[in-house]
Amino acid sequence: MAEDVLSQSEIDALLSAISTGEMNAEELKEEQNEKRVRVYDFKRALRFSKDQIRSLSRVHENFARLLTTYFSAKLRTYVHITVASVDQAPYEEFIRSIPKMTILNIFSLPPLAGRILFEINPNIAYAMLDRVLGGRGVSFNKVDNLTEIETTIMKQLFEHAAENFQEAWSSIVEVEPIMEDFEVNPQFLQLVSPNETVVIISLNMTIGETTGMVNICIPHVVLEPIIPKLSVHYWMQNQQLTESKPEEYQALSKSLEKTTIEVKAILGEADVSIEEFIQLKPDDVIQLDQLISDPLRLCIDEEPKFYVQPGKKRRKMAVQVLEEIKRGDEYNDE
């Protein structure tokens, strides 16, 4: 079991007490020799390491960014979402910490077993509802008296938001969030046994001038099959695979190399009227906008890519590449 680590202020206070005589160094040595006993609560078993908690924090920081983009577009107002904390606690303790009446969305995550819980503070939920219905995003709390229309709108809002949860978790596991239930009273909800360890991700959410919390409760039974993937070793190994060229990437590159594209060397262009075009006859001359001393433009699928000069190769017309056309170069000549 790891020993307690003193902060700098505690170290300074300890040194000061020894130097002034308030504390005897010999007594301190005797205390260190005595066996230390730490109280351990078996009901509050910590089943996730700090490394795994940090990995979950990274995943949900990405989820918070995706949610910010989604709700900003959906509600057409200022939305800001950040991760406030990631903790683990017994399920019973989490249920006691949330309001008696609140917005609860229950999702399953196939192929993972079990269910997860999204708890949305009523202030935030009603601000969203007010924006969707054309209001200014004013919050009003009447969660114990939701109408059928309000319930349907809220369910749709968070059901679509769960698609961002799927994207945020895609780097670890492919899941398909499915909303299974919508509840307002946590006492009627028994997600897992009271002593089951759950991870609680708390998000700070601001919509316009309204602020509130969104809590995501993920039981240990849901994360158990993918716990090895929550380590730093897995993340670094996954990053190395991404940076290297896997077989699929090489196969795709070879397929693209065989793709044919249309390449044109533009000798010049001219604007003529319909009348002039109709009256054209053999030996007539059309003046182009291209000087004979200037290089031609080589277009790939109508997009100018290179400056070239005309010539012949093995008795066939050809062009020689002189220079790549940078973005905006084609307009500088005008």
From TrEMBL:
It is a peripheral membrane protein. The keyword Cell membrane applies. It comes from the Bacteria. It is found in: Bacterial flagellum basal body; Cell membrane. It holds the Pfam family FliMN_C. Coiled coil: none annotated. Residues 255-325 form the Flagellar motor switch protein FliN-like C-terminal domain. Keywords: Bacterial flagellum, Cell membrane, Cell projection, Chemotaxis, Cilium, Flagellar rotation, Flagellum, Membrane. Belongs to the FliM family. PANTHER family: FLAGELLAR MOTOR SWITCH PROTEIN FLIM, YOP PROTEINS TRANSLOCATION PROTEIN Q. This is Flagellar motor switch protein FliM. It comes from Thalassobacillus devorans. The gene is fliM.
